[in-house]
Design goal:
alpha+beta; 4-stranded mixed β-sheet; 4-stranded antiparallel β-sheet
Length: about 120
C-alpha cells in the first residue's frame, strides 16, 4: 500500500469500527447477561431458552460477565442453572414482560442467583 492510501484507509477503518460499536450498543440483539459477583470461580453454567436451546460454560471467573445473544422471537423464558462445588444445582428463571428486554442474572455470595 502506498503512502497516499494509508491515511484514507485508516480513517475509513476507524469510522467503520465506530459505526459497528454504536450499532451493537444501540440496536444489538436481545440477549442474556450472567455476572459473577460471588468472589469465587463458578462452574457448570447452563442457559436455556423456552424453545429448548441451551448453551453451556464450564467456568465463569469472579467479576466476569458472560453475554449470550438470543433470538428476539424466542426470548420468552430463560433459565440459568449453576452447579455448585458440592454437586448441588441452583437455578433461576426470567420471563421478560416486554419484548427486547435483556434478562440479567447475577450470581452473588454463596451462589445465590438474582434476576435483574
Amino acid at each position: 500500500m502506498n503512502d497516499r492510501l494509508a491515511l484514507p484507509a485508516a480513517a475509513a477503518l476507524a469510522v467503520l469500527t465506530l459505526a459497528l460499536w454504536l450499532y451493537l450498543l444501540l440496536f444489538g440483539a436481545a440477549g442474556v447477561q450472567v455476572a459473577n459477583r460471588s468472589g469465587a470461580v463458578i462452574g457448570g453454567l447452563t442457559v436455556c431458552q423456552s424453545g429448548g436451546d441451551c448453551l453451556h460454560r464450564e467456568h465463569l471467573w469472579p467479576h466476569q460477565i458472560w453475554r449470550i445473544p438470543l433470538e428476539k422471537a424466542q426470548a420468552n423464558q430463560v433459565r440459568l442453572t449453576v452447579q455448585e462445588a458440592g454437586g448441588q444445582r441452583q437455578s433461576a428463571s426470567h420471563s421478560p414482560k416486554t419484548t427486547g428486554s435483556r434478562p440479567s442474572f447475577v450470581v452473588g455470595q454463596g451462589g445465590r442467583i438474582e434476576v435483574q
